[in-house]
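Exercise 7. Given the components listed, write out the predicted structure of the assembled complex. Treat all entries as one system.
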Amino acid sequence: MAKVAILGFGTVGSGVYEVLNENAEGIEKRAGEPITVSHILDIRDFSNHPHSELFTKDFEDILADKEVTVIAEVIGGKTFAFDYTKKALMAGKNVVTSNKELVATHGAELLKLAQENGVKYLFEASVGGGIPIIHPMYTCLAANEISEIFGILNGTTNYILTQMIQNGQSFDVALKNAQELGYAEANPSADVDGIDACRKIAILADLAFGKQLSPDKIYTEGITNIDLSDVKYAEKLDSVIKLIGYCKKDEDEVFARVSPMLIPKGTALANTSDVFNAILVRGNAIGDVMFYGRGAGKLPTASAVVSDIIEIAVGNCAKIMWENCGDDFMKDISSETASFVVRADKSFTEDKAKEIFGNITVIDTDGEFVFATNSVKEALMAETAKNYPIKKYIRRF
Amino acid sequence: MAKVAILGFGTVGSGVYEVLNENAEGIEKRAGEPITVSHILDIRDFSNHPHSELFTKDFEDILADKEVTVIAEVIGGKTFAFDYTKKALMAGKNVVTSNKELVATHGAELLKLAQENGVKYLFEASVGGGIPIIHPMYTCLAANEISEIFGILNGTTNYILTQMIQNGQSFDVALKNAQELGYAEANPSADVDGIDACRKIAILADLAFGKQLSPDKIYTEGITNIDLSDVKYAEKLDSVIKLIGYCKKDEDEVFARVSPMLIPKGTALANTSDVFNAILVRGNAIGDVMFYGRGAGKLPTASAVVSDIIEIAVGNCAKIMWENCGDDFMKDISSETASFVVRADKSFTEDKAKEIFGNITVIDTDGEFVFATNSVKEALMAETAKNYPIKKYIRRF
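Answer.
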């Protein structure tokens, strides 16, 4: 029998408990042994819980129990999670987690620590909620050299953008709706500022390219500046605006970015609406594969955490490692090229735009001067926006 | 060093050889050891191949080599493949395969034989070509009770239907194009008659529900009867026609079917065009997840075969088993309910249709009488088609 301790009894933690109990029979069959929760760590009072005897406020209780072989760290954040995870791994306990912040910032170190202690650190739930993506990348796609990964990695922002696109809601109204539906937090910054998507693309790039990317070095732009005019201009280009996480390997350099982008209608990414996520992986043998589903939510995320627990019971043999080797291999986006939709003041003329960008496509001259560039250097776009009355620019995919 | 023997040097076999060579460095890193091809079995003459020394016409050469630990059976069909696979497993060699026919018909027996001999029988490439689906089902989705699986499982028929829908090509013209592009075989029966999709849905159901379904007991209808009028009527219902493999668990019974269906536009399945496959899995924790990509082709399929080889090198610990326990648990489709689009002779009146089916929606009365039923029993539809001048009926999803 495998004994599991759950750290944090919030949304995901209670989901893990629920899935382990509800699906106990099938899980036992697939794991080859029963999996039971022996401890739940939470500082709050759960003395009224039907299984209040499982709760503890002291992490040492869990560390001291030699029968606990797997710890599910679903606290989130770094403060306690990092410390507990290190202690657990050093005590020879396997750790599974949904904590994207911790994996993105300290993954290399924790994977190394796990290896040194002969245990596993698994994090299927850290990207895409319940969508299988981490595991397939190091198993099913292991025969490939992966060159690019991109997609819609955050359900909250995708819900907000979908409301703006399909129902003409303003950003503020759509955000408020998302909060009422429980899709967005009271403080929505991690989602709407792109921080969550940034951590996820960092983890995917780490795994695909073998080197840890510092999330704070990844160019990250959220959706707080997107307004209904942007949606309208995108529509004129037969496109929709999506928040896209993107990473690419170019020789020994890796390039990563999170930003709103215009996605042509009719494509799989444009068709990914509401809270759904879609992640495309491009490999040299497989071509493109896409993983699609709900990227968040209590039970889908718990499903992924529990799948890692089962993996450990069955005996996970995978070698998941990436190196922490500084940031030098991370390429600045300024040298990349892209086509942009530019919203400028009318004093910025078509002639001026052509002088700077070469050929352009005029989209609108009502009130402001809106145009699309051909493929130009990011640096040129940024520089021009600094020196001329340009309100904003959005990349086209 | 792991030594691999490839059985059959056709499209997939030569792809496996190519992927193992091209991506050797990355594969060695992920597998933890170099993986080299030591034997290739093919009855044809490859004396001009740059590595002609690898070729043999005698399977016993491979069996006798104790260093060969993995055999990639990519011959296809059952005649030789079944015999070789059994012999290999009994000789203590792991077998990986893309052979959906063999897995669908003899999977339970071969998995048991593998277990008895302490080796693995893996078949990621048998469904969805390179799309990760088999492996994620028994790992990432292992915390779920799976209730339904459905999707577009055959790229050839999806290409043909896409041509009919988007370019107004007749079935015959679209098939001819598919053959010219190498998407369809000279004898296209396995694809266009739904046999290939039937084997794939059988394998997915086997894996999800733990019992082997006899492919020949699965209701299977191909696309040879679909014409441009069907496409037009679907359009009137804002739908497109797709060949759908479907399976569902209902208490202890399993229900499976392959048939053309009307899929509402705007959905992920309707948007899956050309040779792409899309497979949806519904679990009680995860909700719906979808796997999407090219379902066939030399390198994508080889990518999946090689991923299984790497799995074995790394040490695959999964318990993949299903039972062979007769067909009694397979539910007949006649008791299922569905909504149908019915094409009848004009002598079959609206009044008659309403008398039999209750409320109906008239779609066309030009030349023939075309209508859609509400949800009715399959048995009622089949019985009515037998007794009245009904030319054909197509299910709506």
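Discussion: The longest strand of chain B covers residues 239-250. The two ends of chain B are 50 Å apart (CA to CA).
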